[in-house]
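Batch queue: ligand-bound targets. Current item pairs a single chain with fe (ii) ion. No template structures supplied; prediction is de novo from sequence plus SMILES. Inputs echoed for audit trail.
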Amino acid sequence: MLRDTQGLEVTTNSPEAVGAINQFADQLLGYGNRPEIILSAVEADPTSVLANTHAAALHLFAENGSAASEAEPYLQAARQQLANANQREKLYFSAIESWAQAEVDRALVYHEQLAEQFPRDLVSVQIGQYHYFNLGQSQGLLQLIEKVLPANRENHYIHGMLAFGLEQCHRLDEAEVAGRRATEMNRQDPWAHHAVAHVMETQGRLDEGIAWMESLADTWENCGTFYTHNWWHVALYYLDREDLQSALRVYDRHVWGRACKEYSQCQIDAIALLLRLELRGVEVGNRWQEISAYLSNRLHEHVLPFLDLQYLYALARSGQDEQATEMLKSLQTYAAQAKPYIRPAWAEVAAPMARGLVAHARGDWSTASAEIQTALPRLQEIGGSHAQRDLFEQVYLDTLLRLEHNAQARVMLEKRARTRNQIPAIQRALATTYQKSGLQDAAEQAARRAEELSRR
Ligand SMILES: [Fe+2]
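Prediction returned. Tokens below.
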């Protein structure tokens, strides 16, 4: 019996396997670009339940249609050795097996048990956090991390995780403190950088956000998807500062330019940024077509609603009409038959949002507005972060402005301006809607504010 760096027992006699298991944990928690290191643990000890189960998790993180079948041989190998495994390994196996069976609600029961009995198991916490995130359950996400915090206070990763959980629960000041603490403990913590970036994004602290992230960007070189995602956040600040050329440069150099082009998270970062660029009036050339070339195998996957919505938009926007129509049809069929715990999210939120997004991509503003309006109040159920989901609110706002539904647009814009009062585009849109509503003084005031903010 050997122990990992967290002091947890691993059922193996192979120090090489434990070494690779330790490296895998670091890769996962540090969002590294070499998580496949876990396969050398399987090679070193093919009988290790933990190594095989981690390898299955690695495949499931691919978030594609073949992930579960690629995970299965590793789960099978682990299953055959399960009688020899310790309690933690058994619980962890059950969690990952549940995930492979798309029973994420059951997986979370096991991750919660692991957190109670083995709070030093941060890989389990990380995967539990991922599930809560995808289900839009911010409180669950934060509570899972708080449960293991006392056992891990010396570990910078837990403070970065805490920071993001707090941010998603709108506890912004505490989130920033925790994220900065993690970064002070270890500068190589892209998740902690990211949590602070979310706070600054939510508060509209654009210059601070750019300075914070760009001062840490050198540490993302060995990241996988978090290289792309952290730069995605930098692009959002540039967009709101109306430095559209810099936002496009970040897209080309650091988002799509450095993306793993087959990977879900890289694809959706690119799609979401491209759409935001277009909403700000940027001419994006053939960039939609460049992305959609990688999406033709996504039509029937339905791994996560948040992913599907963005693939679908890219297909429709790039002119892949037949594929978009086929995917929309497939999504609606899947939604009606989805497992009970996720059916409301798919059928009552993702399906109308999907119809609305396709309509928006095709310029049918009335349908877009009606469908998105249905989905918007419950959008959190489809997962993703607040900042990511804000894209859909922006699309809805775009339809209201195009349809000149000025009263509704004003309400949304005023709410946005209250939380982020330094964004010229919001003030400019407000000026237009005030003017169209005959509110001349308010229009002039908002136009002046937009002008002042643009000159900064
Ligand atoms: Fe983010």
